[in-house]
Amino acid sequence: MDISDLRVFEAVSRLGSMNRAAQELNTVQSNVTTRIRTLEQDLGVSLFQRHARGVSITPAGQRVLPFVGRIARLLADARTAAQDEGAPSGALSLGSLETTAALRLSGLLSRFAKTHPAVRLVLTTGTTRKLLDEVIACRLEGAFVAGPVSHPELHQQVVFREELVLVTARNLRSPDELASVPELKTIVFQVGCSYRQRLETSLAERGIVTARPLEFGSLEAIINCVSAGVGITLLPRSVVAGAWQEGRIAIHKLPPGRAEVDTLFVRRADGYVSSALSAFLDMAHASFSVSGT
What are phi and psi of 269, to 5 degrees? Predict the structure, then answer.
């Protein structure tokens, strides 16, 4: 068993197909099939069930899968540590919520790029659930997510606190009017967004039944749809302040227990903190007064 076999295994499990994995890995399907069979023989178990539509990972494969990212990260950490002379350089892969990236990170990223030009920083956006999965699987070195987060393999820092507000079209004067809106729609990010979960909980507590949510991957698309009266959403006040000042939307306060949410920076507790990541966290601390937890 070697890391190249494990990478093939990860690609097949993620894509559900030997052929698609071969395409992604820029090799032929027979090579992928051979590597999987070799790995299965080495481990003494079947990792996949073959069927007409492709393959499905077995329970044994599910147990093996979490180790792939950790092994790859350990090897990458060893290489980084060996080459890390203290001056920030090399690749730095981070993640962020769409809202955080849009409002909070542009200045930080610009300063970091100018201060440390030898670092190749790549920022990926996604929902809290997706970003946590990526950090746990060692595909990201760290990410900005919405709290609370509880996971034994993660180290977390509070970056800043946001006030969440209900965002509606301008003609809605009070959240009490929502109960009379026929087929009320929520406009949200994909499943896994903590703001979406909080909105659904808040509406359920009011006894409000909504139609199937409209999902968008763009913050601006969500704000535009709310402005047009298509539906409502829940977002940090700082994110929608500009649209509110322009008169495009209305915002409504939430009860104190529902309004505040911490934005956290999470990373694997056992991950190597490179000079590049350390420099980024130092700059974030100076920008946002990060407090460790």
Answer: -65, -30
Q: What is the residue range of 122's domain?
A: 92-293
Closest by CA position to 37, among listed 25, 55, 59? 55
| Burial 33-50, CB ≥16 within 10 A → b, else e | bebbeebbeeeeeebbee
Check whether residue 133 and residue 69 sit in a common domain.
no
d(CA 165, CA 202): 11
**CATH no. for residue 74?**
1.10.10.10
pLDDT tens per residue, range 35-92: 999 999 999 999 999 888 889 999 999 999 888 878 887 888 888 888 888 889 999 9
pTM: 0.74
Residue 132 in tokens: 């946590």
Structurally, how many domains does the chain consist of?
2
Max distance between CA atoms of the chain, in angstroms, equals 66
| 264: nearest Cα among 133, 91, 144 | 144
What is the spatial distance between Cα 192 and Cα 236, in angstroms, rounded to a whole number? 17
